[in-house]
Amino acid sequence: MYKIKKIVSNNNLKNVYIHYLYNKRIVLSFYKYFFISNPEKLLFFIRLNLQDKNILGRIYVSSEGINGTISIPFIKYKYIKNFFKKIHTKTRRMYINYTIENKRMAFWNLRIKIKKQIVSSKIKNFCFSSNKNGIYLNAYLVNKYFFNKNFVFVDMRNSYEYEVGHFDNSLSIPAKTFREQLEKLPTFLEIYKNKKIVLYCTGGVRCEKATALLKYKGFSQIYHIYGGILSYLKQVKKYNFTNYFKGKIFVFDDRLSEKITNDIFSKCINCKKYTDSIHINCLNNFCHRLFIQCRKCSIKLNSCCCLDCKNKL
Fold this sequence. Notes:
This protein is α/β, with parallel strands linked by helices. The chain contains 10 helices and 15 strands.
């Protein structure tokens, strides 16, 4: 009997595997509210340790905490996770969401910046404190309360995020920015003050401030999803729960969206027909409006939001 010779050596197979792991990327999103006495010092420390690690994305540091979304090689996941959990005593229990990057790259560079706030909010007389926020809910409790008439679910994302995907029957506060949403939030929810209110956003960072504001305004029964939609989806998959989030998640990177279910909620801005297209910016740089447009209208209007913008190109 003839022996079959190895076509590929073990070392070559190992190199191929390592190359695959290194080039397979995941997106991490994380935040932690805590007082930082010297944000510049922390920023310098992060920058020093992340350079030359093939890490892309953005990280914001302020006196009120840290907030980041980064794309990393899969093979560096444990290293990066441990690094951020050890940069401060307050980050040891920081929750880190992750998703697998698919076909499109999420980021093309790394930006680490100092900001006044990790999530912008300018409410008069409101001093945010992370220990005065709402009660956390996991996926099991979210599903348990989902059809309970005493609970109201509120989407704390912008209108363009809500239009591509959301929890069924959840309320949306019409706004272009989170700052605008916060200003409207107490008045918008006044009629639901006697109900139990569940807020949700993509990763949880916005709901920390929103629930704290509602408690400051006298709302007593306030909840939010721990880790946001991303954490909820991970849990329903892990424990085989029913998923009540439908459509896509809008993400603030070059992917623009992440498909969760085949449900389509978005409509073309021009013909008003339902479309699975992702958001684009108007090709007219003097407009640069963010909108959804079907392929047919996009060809007709040269990727502009309207005929007027197209004629001004």
